[in-house]
Amino acid sequence: MFDLRQNDLTRGEFEELALKHLDPLYAAALRLTKNDRDAEDLVQDTFLRAYRFFDKFERGTNMKAWLFKILTNTFINRYRRSVKERNIVEGSERDAVHERFVSREAAEYAANPEQYFFDRLLSDDVLKAVDSLPIDFRLVVILADLQEFSYKEIAEILDVPVGTVMSRLYRGRRLLQKALASYAVLSGVLQDVGEDGSIDLEAYRKRRGKSA
Amino acid sequence: MAIEPTLTAAMECVELERALDAYLDDEFDARERAEADAHLGKCARCRDLVETQGRMRAAIRARLREAMTPPSTAGRAPAALRQRIEGALARRRRPCSPPWARAPGIGTAAPPFSSRSREFRRRRRQAHIPALGDQGP
User: Fold this and answer.
1) How far is A1 from chain B (nearest CA, A)?
2) Using one digit for the tens of pLDDT, what is the confidence trace for A110-133?
3) Where is mean pLDDT largest: A57-61, A168-172, B4-8?
4) Could you tell me the CA-to-CA distances from A113 to A110, A123, A185, B77 in Å, in that order?
5) Is A199 in CB contact (< 8 Å) with chain B?
C-alpha cells in the first residue's frame, strides 16, 4: 500500500526541522568549496542525504549539528578530491605545541590599540582571511566562532577527539588573526609589525630614510 | 568538558594560559571556572591576558558574523537553492508512489541542473554495471 500521506508528513517535519538551517549550511559550504555552484550542490546533497537518513535522526537532539556532520562528511567524501585541498594539519598541529609558548607575546601584540584594526577591515578581506586557512582549521573556526558549537559538538561533527578540536581551534584562530593582520597591512589599516613586535628592519630603514 | 586532572587546587599562570581558550569559550565546568576566577582575582597579568584575548575574540566573532550571515550574500542561501531543495525533497520519496505517477511531466518540474547530470550519470553507471556472472561470453 502506498502511504503518500505519511510520506508528506515526514517530509513536512523534515523541512520544518532542517530548512531553517539552510543559511548557515550554505555559508559553511561556500567557505569549504570556495565556489557558489559547488556550495549549492553540496548543500543540496546534504539535505537529500539527511532526508534519506531522517529515520536515524533522534528527535529532540541537535538537528543543526547533525546537518553539519552530514555536510562535512559529504564534502570530505565527494568534493574534497575535486577541490584539491592540501591537508597540512599534521605538521601544523605539531607547530601548535610550540605556538602555545608564544601566546603571551601574541596577546601583548593584541593589546596594542591597533587591535581595533578588525573593525576597519572589509568583509571581503575577512572572507579571504578565512579562506586562506588550511581546510581543517577553517572548519573548526567556522564551527566554533561563527556557529558557536561547543567543543563536544564539534568533536562529534568531525568525528575527532575533543583534544584535536582544541588544538585545531587554537592554531586556526592564531592563523586567522595573522591573516587578518596581513590584510590590514595590505589595506594600510595597520602598520607592519614583525612577529616579535619589532618593525621589519627594511621597513624601518625605508621609513628612516624618508624622514631623514 | 574534562580538563587535565592536574588542574586542581590553586591554578598557576601557565595553567590558565594553556586553558585560556576553554575558559573564554565557556567550556569550563563550575569547579574549573571557580579555580580560574580565584586565580584571576589575584593575578593582574592574567586578568589583562583574559581581557585582551576576550576582546580580540569578540571582535573576530563579530566580523565573521557580519561577513557570513544574512544579509551578506556569503551568508544567505540563494532563493533558487531553497526551491531546488524543496523540489528535490518532494520527489525523493516518490518512488513509493504508483508507477503511473512517475511518468515524466506529471506534477514534477525538471530535476535541478547540476544534480540532474550527476544523478543521471550515477544512475546510468549503476544501470550499466553488469551483475556478476552476467557478463556473457
Assistant:
1) 9
2) 455 445 666 677 888 899 999 999
3) A168-172
4) 8, 21, 15, 36
5) no
What distance in Å separates the CA atoms of residue B4 and residue B6, rounded to the nearest whole number? Answer: 5
The set of cell numbers assigned to A168 is 585545531
pLDDT grade for B59, boundaries at 50, 70 and 90: confident
Q: Closest chain B residue to A142 measured between Cα atoms?
A: B64
pLDDT tens, B71-93? Answer: 999 999 999 999 999 999 988 75
Q: Please indicate whether, in this complex, the C-beta atoms of B70 and A162 are within 8 angstroms of each other.
A: no
pLDDT of residue A98: 39
Q: Does B72 touch chain A (CB under 8 A)?
A: yes
H-state helical runs in chain A: 4-18, 22-33, 36-52, 63-74, 80-83, 89-99, 103-111, 123-131, 135-141, 151-158, 162-186, 201-211
Please name the amino acid found at residue A188: G
Separation of CA A114 from chain center: 24
Q: Do A40 and B81 touch (CB under 8 A)?
A: yes
Q: Which grid cell is B72?
A: 551578506
Which of B1, B67, B94 is opposite residue A123, by nearest beta carbon? B67
Do A173 and A179 touch, CB atoms closer than 8 A? no
Residue of A nearest to B99 (CA): A2
In this prediction, residue A122 carries a pLDDT of 83
CB burial readout A100-127, b (16+ within 10 A) else e: beebbebbebbbeeebebbeebebebbb
Residue of B43, B73, B85, B100 to mutate, interface with A, max A Cβ within 10 Å: B85
Handedness of CA A24, A28, A29, A35 (dihedral sign): positive
Residue type at B129? I
Cell numbers of B134, please? 552476467
Phi, psi torsion values for A203, nearest 5 degrees: -65, -40
Residue B104: how many CA atoms within 13 Å on its side-chain side?
Answer: 2
Instruction: Scan for cell 546534504, then name that residue.
Output: A46
User: How far does A123 lie from chain B, in Å, by closest CA?
Assistant: 5
Q: Under an 8 A CB cutoff, do A127 and B74 touch? A: yes
